[in-house]
Write a structure and sequence with these properties.
Helix content is about 75%, strand content about 5%. The protein is mainly alpha-helical. The protein has a two-stranded antiparallel sheet with strand order 1-2.
């Protein structure tokens, strides 16, 4: 009788310990997943920054034709060819669009970091939407001011 009672106590203690270990493992897995999610978000943010930089670089290269000589100096070319086809000038991205992209990226990162209850995806979505809205509004205001000054 005593051995049976003692056996059930050890089984209960083992079950408790297994439950505690399971919770610790789950918390560790959630922490790892948060780190992975934040790294993915940073990679997406960097990719969008890189693509914007590439667009800006190509836009700058098209607007100022120049030749680099062997000495490192630049000179602009004024020679025109009558039969050369004209290239349609690509529209620049508006300030509202730039603001929305930048605001969305910053808002998503901020939302993921600041999110309550350890839900970085939900925080990133909310922050991204709010940031995009604020960025688009700010960009539109700046575009309007630039239009007035020109």
């Amino acid at each position: 009788m005593v051995s049976c009672n003692q056996n059930s106590k050890t089984e209960v203690e083992q079950a408790k310990q297994m439950a505690i270990d399971s919770m610790k493992n789950q918390a560790a897995l959630e922490a790892k997943q948060m780190v992975i999610d934040s790294m993915k978000l940073e990679a997406q943010k960097q990719a969008s920054i890189d693509s914007l930089n590439a667009l800006n670089a190509t836009a700058n290269n098209r607007s100022t034709p120049s030749k680099v000589s062997a000495g490192g100096s630049t000179s602009t070319s004024n020679n025109t060819v009558a039969s050369a086809p004209t290239v349609a000038k690509k529209k620049k991205m508006s300030g509202a669009v730039k603001g929305a992209l930048i605001g969305g990226g910053v808002g998503a990162v901020s939302g993921a970091i600041i999110s309550r209850n350890n839900k970085p995806l939900k925080g990133a979505l909310i922050g991204g939407v709010i940031g995009a809205g604020v960025g688009a509004g700010t960009g539109a205001i700046i575009d309007a001011q630039n239009k007035k000054s020109n």
